[in-house]
Amino acid sequence: NRDNRTLERNVKQNPLKNVGEIHKEWTAAGVSASRTTTHRRMQDMGFSCRIPCVKPLLNNRQRQKRLAWTKDKKDWTAAEWSKIMFSDESKFCISFGNQGPRVWRKRGEAQNPRCLRSSVKFPQSVMVWGAMSSAGVGPLCFLRSKVNAAVYQEVLEHFMLPAADQLYGDADFIFQQDLAPAHSAKATSTWFKDHGIPVLNWPANSPDLNPIENLWGIVKRKMRYARPNNAEELKATIR
Predict the structure, then answer these.
(1) What is the pLDDT of residue 89?
(2) Would residue 196 be called left, alpha or beta, if left means φ above 0 and alpha means ψ between -120 and 50 degrees?
(3) pLDDT tens per residue across span 192-230
(4) Which of 190, 165, 164 has the alpha carbon at shortest distance from 176?
(5) How far apart are CA 212 and CA 134, in angstroms?
(6) DSSP 3-state assignment of 47?
(7) In the beta sheet, which residues pair with residue 85?
(8) Which of 9-13, 24-28, 37-41, 81-85 has the highest mean pLDDT?
(9) What is d(CA 183, CA 86) in angstroms, rounded to the nearest whole number?
(10) Most-buried pick from 2, 26, 60, 200 (CB within 10 A)?
(11) 111 CB contacts (<8 Å, ≥6 apart)?
């Protein structure tokens, strides 16, 4: 039992280690066991090797601010949340990593051109700005250059304001954005004040709190098997 507790403690202290590393630590503690036995014992304890979930890297100060933010918002009603227009940029690439359709081929046809899936080192991509609320989605903006404060204010002027008219009409709303430099620039803050648009306070490094991230994820999953050939086809597929 003492040996089992040692093994379980080693696994819990650093769950990202592989079986070989854990086995080495366990045997270094005086336990006589093979690597296979170590692996089997870990499985008996209920440990399974899985792909880890991805979460934002946060320091203690950011954690505290996120906690304070959620405590402040935890009693908001659906009506209050419906006033929020969530926004964000997202990058779409012509190549979507390793996911894609399989191929039917016979032995020896692995290098046959019709059985290959092309890849490029730097695939074409587009950056998209979008907004959503409980009432629906606003128009998409395909960004042509790096987003600085001036470019972002153009997006707000020509896409966010029409989205607000479309989603809210004459009703009041609160705009949400993250703390990207272009978003938090002094000139951008002045733009919001000049237009009388309140901005939701937002904790740093918190994309997981923004529901539009789920919307981008849905779009990318729907595009998983799409194979646009150039940037214009990619834009059309996104639309």
Answers:
(1) 96
(2) left
(3) 999 999 999 999 989 989 999 999 999 999 988 888 888
(4) 164
(5) 11
(6) coil
(7) 175
(8) 81-85
(9) 13
(10) 26
(11) none
